[in-house]
Design brief:
Blueprint: H1 2-5, E1 15-24, E2 28-31, H2 32-38, H3 43-50, E3 54-57, H4 62-77, E4 86-90, H5 101-109, E5 115-119, H6 125-138, E6 144-152, E7 170-180, E8 185-193, E9 201-202, E10 222-223, H7 225-247, E11 256-259, H8 264-274, H9 285-288, H10 295-305, E12 314-321, E13 325-332, H11 354-357, H12 359-364
Parallel strand pairs: 4-5, 4-6, 11-12
Antiparallel strand pairs: 1-7, 2-3, 6-7, 8-13, 9-10, 12-13
Helix pairs in contact: 4-5, 7-8
The protein binds coenzyme A.
């Protein structure tokens, strides 16, 4: 009787270790000099205000970019797509809402048994996705997941708005996370959404609305740069303080800071606030610009490729985006810092220049670029 009443408590902690990573960077590049051919701007102005030197524009869909990044992440982890339980696509620019785009990626990967959903919190989408998927692993409901951030924001650029159209680029990044008994993965996070700040960054009419029956509104970004800048620093700064406090970690203990890549001045302000030397900060805004949900996984991949992530590294990450959503997380890296394999997935390049690729978009906003097109005059710029 006594034995029957005895309760045997054995709590096994499950962690969600990152075991694979991959990225897709579209081959076509739009430099600041190209940008100055279509809007009234200069390389000097863009670099000094934002730190951006160029951005990549995609000739393939979000799902194809995500698929390429995911295939590489799976090869890196040595995990078969058939063993994936969950695919989360973080994105604001999905090509299909119903059915969701994650299910399209699932089919491309042949991840037959995976559940699949999209998550949109704008630029924070990947960090939000990582927190949700990690928690599902920690709860024991999922063993292996793919967390993808992919964006094709080039399709949302309004070329009549020089204050915002230079800021964004396309790309995709993905990680494989797996249940593990080793203390690794997303250790803690703090997410939030600034009250009453929806208006300063939004793409009106990018969803279902009765106005679709009566009006055709061109896609355009409503954007108050300075307001977003201030909220970004405040939101990310506070989220970082909260997560460090929550995990009992001092800023000095952080080995690497992988922030959202929206403006080099935002990153520098945050680094100063944390008393981080810029050597601890991963910055890739110069070559990719702001790729929204893809920004952090792309930066993480670059840091791994450059050997900046070591086994056991303590990584701080922080992001903000439309909403205004924000968040910060602490990732304790596992033991794997090199790829177990490489994906052979391939997509043919675009035959033409970046101006050819974007010709319909420029025409839509009344920007004359015929002299820049491949079949135009000699004034055409190289990619
Ligand atoms: C966009 C951003 C780089 C602009 O920098 P800024 O220092 O705030 O610049 P301002 O908007 O005050 O503009 C300064 C001047 O440059 C001009 N300007 C704006 N865009 C320009 C461009 N592309 N080229 C040249 N001049 C430009 C403005 O007209 C203004 O001229 P004025 O002083 O004669 O009126 C900055 O506000 C920012 O990065 N904001 C946050 C980024 C963001 O929101 N990312 C998306 C969310 S994740």
């Amino acid at each position: 009787m006594e034995n029957a009443l005895r309760i045997n408590w054995r709590v096994e902690l499950i962690y969600s270790k990152i075991t694979g990573w991959g990225k897709y960077v579209p081959p076509l590049v739009m430099t600041n000099y190209h940008m100055a051919e279509v809007i009234d701007t200069s390389d000097e102005w863009i670099r000094s205000r934002s730190g951006i030197g160029q951005r990549h524009y995609s000739h393939i869909s979000i799902s194809d970019m995500a698929w390429m990044a995911a295939e590489q992440a799976l090869a890196c982890a040595g995990v078969k797509s058939a063993d994936i339980d969950l695919i989360v696509l973080g994105s604001t620019t999905v090509e299909e809402i119903c059915p969701n785009t994650a299910s399209l990626i699932k089919n491309k990967l042949g991840a037959h048994r995976a559940a699949a959903f999209d998550l949109n919190s704008a630029c924070t989408s990947w960090l939000y996705s990582l927190s949700v998927a990690s928690d599902m692993i920690k709860a024991g409901s999922v063993k292996k997941a793919l967390v993808i951030g992919a964006e094709r924001l080039s399709l949302a650029m309004d070329w009549t708005k020089r204050e915002s159209c230079f800021l964004f680029g396309d790309g995709a990044g993905a990680v494989v996370i797996e249940a593990s008994d080793k203390q690794a993965g997303l250790q803690g996070y703090h997410m939030g959404c600034v009250p009453d700040s929806r208006e300063c960054l939004r793409i009106p009419d990018w969803g279902l609305s009765p106005t679709h029956f009566t009006e055709t509104t061109p896609i355009s970004l409503d954007f108050e740069g300075q307001e977003i800048f201030k909220s970004a620093v405040k939101g990310m700064g506070e989220a970082i303080e909260k997560v460090l406090d929550q995990e009992g970690i001092a800023a000095d203990d952080i080995d690497l800071f992988v922030p959202h890549q929206a403006n080099i001045r935002i990153i520098q302000t945050l680094a100063k606030r944390l008393n981080f030397s810029m050597e601890k900060v991963v910055v890739c805004i110069e070559k990719y610009a702001n790729t929204s949900a893809a920004a952090i996984p792309l930066a993480l991949c670059d840091a791994l490729e450059a050997g900046r992530v070591k086994p056991g590294s303590l990584i701080l990450t922080a992001s903000f985006g439309a909403g205004l959503t924000y968040g910060a997380g602490i990732i304790r890296w596992g033991d794997s810092v090199t790829s177990k394999g490489h994906s052979s997935a391939f997509i043919p390049p675009f035959e033409g220049t970046v101006f050819d690729l974007m010709a319909d978009s420029f025409a839509h906003y009344g920007i004359e670029v015929s002299h820049l097109l491949s079949d135009g005059s000699e004034e055409q710029l190289e990619n």
